[in-house]
Amino acid sequence: MTAGEFDRIVERACAQIPARFRRRLRNVVFVVEPEPSDAQLASLRVGRGGTLLGLYEGRPLTSRSVSDPFAMPDRITIFQGPHERAAGNLAHLEQLVAGTIWHEVAHYFGMDERQVRTAERARAGRNRK
How far apart (Å, rounded) are the C-alpha atoms in residues 105 and 61? Predict the structure, then answer.
């Protein structure tokens, strides 16, 4: 898949974020990279053979103040290679990308990894009913 084709999948997934959340995404940029860097993997203690689908880098919304000085945009990176390797087909790829974006946006809104995983399990349970 070309980078442009993958970018369009990411754009469609971002458009699926409900408006009530999308309106609150401020000073955050979505970026697509081919692969996570060694430094990114090391910073999150990703073990040998492991990888990242996405990464939120920034200061969560819950820890900001109106008196904060100007800050560079937060960054949500979506990694193309790991998604392609994990996906069984195009529909699965689109589902994985959408799930990764939701996961990283949850970090932006202040959820830690445990909270995000708990919310993902609850959401998956509701979707199965």
Answer: 10
Cα 14 to chain centroid distance, Å, stands at 10
Question: What residues of the chain score a pLDDT lower than 70?
Answer: 61-70, 124, 126-129
Q: Which two tokens stand for residue 36?
A: 């996570």
Structural domains of the chain, with CATH: 3-128 (3.30.2010.20)
The pTM for the full model equals 0.84
- Residue 73, classed as helix, strand or coil, is coil
pLDDT per residue over 97-120, tens digit each?
999 999 999 888 888 888 888 877
Q: Which residues contact 51 (CB under 8 A, 6 or more apart)?
A: 35, 36, 41, 79, 82
Q: What is the mean pLDDT of the chain?
A: 87
Q: Which of 78, 115, 106 is nearest to 93 (CA)?
A: 78
pLDDT at 50: 85
The secondary structure of 52-88, three-state, reads CCEEEECCCHHHCCCCCCCCCCEEEEEEHHHHHHHCC
